[in-house]
Specification:
The chain contains 19 helices and six strands. The chain has 451 residues and is mainly alpha-helical.
Length: 451
């Protein structure tokens, strides 16, 4: 680990361990073996392909055990074959032929990789990797949403001075501002979950050419669909070149990019609230904030998350922009790029864990929030001029602008101004009892409307 070039394999390796089973070279080889075995079993089960005879229950169990028992040590055997063939997918085919050599299945060896191009195996393997990667990443996304939802409900009634353009603005509540992020992140999670992960198993240029040349009577579309959808849990794409066009990958990576962008927005807002002392941070025994300033407790978790979201998005953006582009029926520029899918997932995972850690250390400073509100009576210019409009008073905005803009405003100033207005008594009394802390509109009620 200390000699690793990538921090994902070095400093941060312990934070992304789940992803080794999803995106490592071993994971890719494991999925290739799985696809090849399932395709062979589908061929054997097809009555229209008599030369690929039906397998017995014990033979099927043996083939499936090759997949189930595929370890990193077995993957090294494939890599040793690749060192000779200089072709990674062909190495898997030869590995499987070696596994069934000397068994009753040996006479089916030429139906391994039958009518397939490498991309038939690879596109399905990459789809499975993404499916597994999402299964590892999604729970962390939901943990962040759940934690924010809990804080939103807990702080729904805690007033806070809002700031638009960095200036004092109509008050809100801590809970409502966090609820905004709950809604935004959940929407993107729903969008990500709705992306159909596609796959193809249709030969060299997507037309089942080789398949029909050998067995023109077989329903190859249905046979391929059974493997793709029933066995692998993906969605068949019939309209491909040699490669599955990767448009769904672009949708997926764009969705993850948006999720991470919203998380970056959250990280920056929480960072700013900490800098304003709206939130403090629970100290952790033994931790040091600054090498020279002993008093500091830096918001490093949110900073770490922001940085790693940026790295993840740099990868995801390139993937989404590059992968749907392939010259004519196929070029190989996607191959090396696809090997970096796990990098985007890895930096995302680090970011999510950092945000969760930071959220768990937050402690609200209600005294500071109340103090800032009590120093911002000018924000009541908005409700006052709005009620003045209701009453038909001439130039209400301009009168409040003259009263408040660039002026030091306090409770007495506001009360004196309201007392001098010709308003309905009910409206006047409502304004006279209003404070910056009570002027939060429907903020608390909006939190209750979270799904």
């Amino acid at each position: 680990m200390i000699t690793a070039i990538s921090p994902l394999d070095g400093r941060y390796a312990s934070k992304v361990t789940e992803l080794t089973e999803c995106f490592s070279e071993y994971a890719l080889l494991h999925n290739r073996v799985k696809v090849e075995v399932l395709w062979l079993l589908a061929l054997a089960a097809e009555a229209g392909i008599p030369e690929c005879r039906a397998v017995t229950a014990s033979e099927e169990a043996f083939l499936r055990s090759i997949v189930a028992d595929f370890t990193p040590a077995e993957a090294e055997k494939v890599k040793a074959i690749e060192a000779v063939t200089n072709h990674d997918v062909k190495a898997v085919e030869y590995y499987l032929k070696d596994k069934i050599a000397g068994t009753s299945l040996e006479n089916l060896s030429e139906f391994l990789h039958f009518a397939c191009t490498s991309e038939d195996i690879n596109n399905l393997s990459h789809a499975l990797m993404l499916k597994d990667g999402l299964a590892a990443l999604s729970p962390l996304q939901q943990q962040i949403i759940a934690h924010l939802r809990k804080l939103a409900v807990e702080f729904k009634d805690v007033p806070m001075l809002a700031r638009t353009h960095g200036q004092t603005a109509s008050p809100t509540t801590i809970g409502k501002e966090l609820a905004v992020f709950v809604a935004r992140l959940q929407k993107q999670s729903d969008n990500i979950a709705a992306v159909e992960i596609l796959g193809k198993l249709n030969g060299a240029v997507g037309n089942f050419n080789a398949h029909l040349s050998a067995y023109p009577q077989v329903d190859w579309i249905a046979l391929a669909k059974g493997v793709i959808e029933k066995e692998l849990g993906l969605k068949q794409n019939l309209f491909t070149t040699q490669i599955e066009p990767h448009d769904y990958m672009a949708e997926l990576f764009d969705g993850l990019t948006r999720w991470n962008t919203i998380l970056t927005d959250l990280n920056r807002d929480i960072w700013t609230y900490i800098s304003m002392a709206y939130f403090g941070q629970k100290t952790v025994k033994g931790e040091i904030g600054s090498s020279t300033m002993p008093h500091k407790v830096n918001p490093i978790d949110f900073e770490n998350s922001e940085g790693n979201c940026g790295l993840a998005n740099a990868i995801f953006c390139h993937l989404s922009q590059k992968l749907p582009i392939s010259r004519l029926q196929r070029d190989l520029t996607d191959s090396t790029v696809l090997r970096n899918m796990g990098v985007g997932f890895g930096y995302s995972m680090i970011a999510y864990r950092s945000t969760l850690k930071g959220l768990g250390k937050l402690k609200l400073n209600e005294h500071k929030l109340a103090d800032d509100l009590d120093r911002a009576w000018e924000v009541l210019a908005e409700p006052i001029q709005t009620v003045m409009r209701k009453a038909g008073i001439e130039k209400p905005y301009e009168k409040l602008k003259e009263l408040t803009r660039g002026q030091q405003i306090d409770r007495e100033t506001i009360r004196a101004f309201v007392e001098g207005l010709e308003l309905a008594e009910e409206d006047k009394q409502r304004l006279l009892v209003m404070t910056p802390a009570s002027y939060t509109g429907m903020a608390a009620a909006l939190v209750q409307k979270l799904d």
